[in-house]
């Protein structure tokens, strides 16, 4: 049976995701799925050096500093939208 990761995730067939039987395989796939959703969301918002620095700061908690000139910092709207998306996916991380 050929099951895609997304189909397996959505149907709850976590064992088919990586061919594993343990919880760790399922957790890894859920995290991968959430990260893919987040990256797709951020790319749709517009993604460049400034946005990369903003995302790295959000995810790591380490200030990445401003981008080199002539680039501008990521907009407050971008950061707020990205942070909201991360929080909305956060329930998957609390496994």
UniProtKB/TrEMBL annotation:
Catalyzed reactions per annotation: aceneuramate = aldehydo-N-acetyl-D-mannosamine + pyruvate
Family membership: Belongs to the DapA family. NanA subfamily.
Domain of life where this protein originates: Eukaryota
Record's subcellular location: Cytoplasm
UniProt-recorded name of the protein: N-acetylneuraminate lyase
Native source organism of the sequence: Myotis davidii (David's myotis)
EC number: 4.1.3.3
Listed pathway(s): Amino-sugar metabolism; N-acetylneuraminate degradation
